[in-house]
Amino acid sequence: MVMLLFAFCSATLLTGVAAAHLLTPGILLVLCFLVGTGNAMFGPPWQASVSEQVPAEDLPQAIAFNSMSYNIARSFGPALGGIIVAAAGAVTAFGITAVCYLPITIAFYMWQRVAEPPRLPPERVGGAIVSGIRYLINAPPMRAVILRSVMTGVAGAALFSLMPLVARDLIGGGPLTYGILLGAFGVGAVSGAFLMPRLRHLPKEHVIATSGIILGVAIILLALSRSLWAAMPVLLVAGCCWMQLLTQYNIVIQTQAPRWITGRALASYQAATAGGIAMGAWLWGSVAQHMGTGWGIAASGIAMLLVTAIGRKLRIADPGAVSETEVKQMADPDEVLGLTGRSGPILIEIDYSVDPDQARQFYELMQNVGQFRRRNGAYQWSLARDVGDGSAWVERFSCPTWHDYLRQRDRMTARDRLVHELALEVTRTGQVERVRRFLERPTGSVRWRSESRDPGVLVPFSPSSG
Which pTM value belongs to this model? Predict the structure, then answer.
C-alpha cells in the first residue's frame, strides 16, 4: 500500500512538472525512475496477495487472471499511451497514468484483509534477500522458471526494442504505423488471455514449448514483412504467444512456491524477465545497427526457437498432488538456556539407525532432505556415518540464530515432509533416533564469560510465547 501510494505521488508529480513546462530530460528520467521503483516494489506483493483473496480450489484460475491482466496492461499499454499522446499530448498521458493508480488504491483500502499474527518477528531485509536467493538456488522448479524467464526475455526483446525500426525501415511508415503495430500486438495479448481457460488442463510444458515455437516463427516472419497488412497478423499471433509464456511462468511461480517465499519468488521472476528484455534490447539493437533491422528481428526469432529447444533441458513440472503449502507448525523444542531470538549459531544433530544393506538407498534419499533443509534456511548441511558402527548415521546442519532455526522448521511443506518420510522408511525404526540442538560457542567468545549477557537482544524470547 505504501509503495502504491509512492508510485501514485510520483506520477502525480510528473504530471504537475510537465504541466508547468518545467520538464527536462534529467527530471523526466528521475521521475520515471521513481514511478518504476514504486511499481517494482508493490507489484510482487500485489500478485502474491491473490492466495489470500480466493479459496484454494480457485487459486490457479485466479492467478491466471491476475497474471493476464498484468501482462495485458504491459502489452497493450504502450499502444494506448501512444494514442493518447498523439491525440491529447504528453501531459494528458501522464495525468491518466496517475489517475489509474486510484482504483487499485481504493480497492486495497477497502479490502478487509484478515492477517494472521506472525509467530516470529519478521526477517531483516538483508536476511530476507539471502533467504530468497538460497531458496531459488535449492529449488530446481523455481530455478528452471527463472532461467527460462531470462532467456525468453532476451530472445523476445526485439518485439519491443526494434518495433519503431520495423515501422520505419521495414514498412516505411511513421508514428501512426508504430502505434498500429503495438495495437496489433496488444490485441493478440488480449486474445491470448481468452485462450487460457481452454489451455489450463494441458501440461504447462507443452503450452510453453508450443507457444515458444510459434512465437519464434512469428518473429522471423515479422522480419520478412514489408507491409502493414503482412505485419499485423504476425504481431497478433506473437502477442498471443507472448501472453501465454509469461502467464504460464507466473502460474508456476505462484503455485509451486510456499507462501513465505511467494513475494520474493515473484520479484525474482519479474526482475529476471525485465533484465532479460533489457539485455536483449541491447543485443538485438547492436545486431540491427551492424546488419540491418531485418537481421536483428530475424536473429531474435531464431534465438526464441533455440530458447525453446534449451527449455527441454529445464523442464517445468505441473503442480503435483502434494502441496507446497506449509504443514501445521511444530511445537517449539525444549530449551533450558534461556535463549533469545538472536542467540546462535545453533547446531542441530539428528541421529538415524539404518541397516548396512540399506545404506546406499538411505544416502540417496537424504540428499533430497538436505536440499529442502538448505532451501528452508539451513547452513552447512552434512551427512556422516559412524566408522565404528555402520548402522549409525548423523545429519548435521546449522542456523545463524535461534529464530532462524524456528523459521526453518516452520517452512517445511507437505512435500518436504513426504521427502523426509521416504528417507525414514528405510531406517530400522521408521523414525529419527535422537535430535540434539547445540548453542555453538566459538573459542574466545566474550559471551562465554559468566558475567556477560547475550548481546543484541531487543525482545526477550521464550518458546512458550513463540
Answer: 0.77
